[in-house]
Amino acid sequence: MDALTIQEILNSFPALALLQQHPVPHALTHNRKLLFVKKSAVKLFEGDNPDYFLGKDITSFIHPLDHGRILNRFEILNDENPKNSPTEARVYALNGKIKHIISVSSLLEIAGHPLVMAAATELSEEMGYEISQSEQNFQRLFENMLDVFYRTDSEQNLTLVGPAALSVLGYLPEEVIGLPASGFYFDPQARANIVTAIKKHGKIQNFPARLKHKDGHIVNVEITSSAIYSDDKQFLGMEGLFRDVSEQVSIKEKLHRLATIDELTGILNRRAFLEKANHLIKQLRRHSECSLLAVIDLDKFKPINDRYGHLSGDRVLKIFVSLFKETLRETDVFGRLGGDEFAIIFRKCTMSEGLEILQRIQEKMQKISIRLSDNEVSISASIGLTELREEDLPFSLALARADRALYQVKQNGGAHVAMLSS
């Protein structure tokens, strides 16, 4: 709400001058944002200037133990229930001190805008209301916990965020109060999925998500959260914890990469390729499709290794693989079986289409030369090609056919493609 609208509202409030003279602290809010704060309310919170409070979410001053209950009182105000009965609550003064108050809130309509007027009276120690040791312990826990505690309202705007948000996401809690929770997700739809899951099951535990750090990088978190309902089962929002698991995710990804990716070439290693191949054959048994297997062997690679050394041989293999990768389709499965032997599964590909792809790669190899020491070295490949069948379990049956086709090419001097269908 802009400053001009706020001033229009305040000018339209006939009781504002009388309210200013009232000794009890009062405040006016719109969507929980403070529009007006009396000097006595400023004093209650031990502040110096009313302007400091304007625009802030009133729930950011509420103690976490009372946060849900006070939020509930704001949510249930409506035309049929325009006023809440007095209640005790704990609030934060600006110096961090916890104060105990009795508060009451009422729904008003001023200049066409629904506002809530809140009034509060501080309870003195003489009235027998002291901060208990358990509250102090809770406060220390809340401020020092490594996980981030959060709470939202029914519209999924943040109403409470723990101090750990600074170390995990780079935000001070007061920077994010009142903002949509979805705005901190790398994929906002992921937040919608979480809300749907919580509304359906009541809670989630260790739910993975990716959040955006203030500096822009992605933070992997796990969220444990539950729904908040009023006494009459009205959905009020959610509360829970999320923790930074970026390091664990990174380690898991590295381990997965080590287990599935060939370190030298960056394509699938033998084990991962064969796993995908066997899975595909099982799929073919349920849903038939035309797929091909090509087994590829780099011609005359051993002499290159023997003459120029393994580092030069590794360089040749990388260039060789790059020629295939830039030509293959996204659906194709490319892996290194070992040494200078590779394999490709062409998904949903006819024999003529597969031959055309392999021919383009052969033509690229004919046009390049690789400088090793003081010599220019050319490369070529022998390729055996066969159709995949649903009977190819174990997958070694298909590999054997492709190897026989590859052997024919080798016998005829290499640098060619041979097909074998049986």
How is this structure best described in words?
By secondary structure, the protein is an alpha+beta fold. Helices cover 37% and strands 27% of the residues. It has helices at 3-11, 16-21, 39-44, 64-75, 133-144, 165-169, 173-176, 188-201, 246-260, 270-286, 301-308, 310-325, 351-367, 396-411, and strands spanning 26-30, 33-37, 87-92, 98-110, 113-122, 148-152, 158-161, 203-212, 218-229, 235-244, 292-298, 333-338, 341-346, 370-372, 375-377, 381-387, 417-419. The strands form four sheets. Strands 2-1-5-4-3 form a five-stranded antiparallel β-sheet, with helices on both faces. A five-stranded antiparallel β-sheet has the order 7-6-10-9-8, with helices on both faces. A five-stranded mixed β-sheet has the order 12-13-11-16-17, with helices on both faces. Strand 14 (370-372) and strand 15 (375-377) form a beta hairpin. Helix 11 (301-308) crosses helix 12 (310-325).
Using brief descriptors, characterize the structure shown.
single chain; about 425 residues; alpha+beta; five-stranded antiparallel β-sheet; 14 helices; 17 strands; elongated
Radius of gyration: 34 Å
Strand order, biggest sheet? 2-1-5-4-3
Unreliable stretches: 126-131
Give the end-to-end Cα distance, rounded to a whole number of Å: 75 Å
Largest β-sheet summary: 5 strands, antiparallel
Domain GGDEF: 289-422
Domain PAS: 134-200
Protein name: Diguanylate cyclase
Organism: Acidithiobacillus concretivorus
Summary?
Helix content is 37%, strand content 27%.
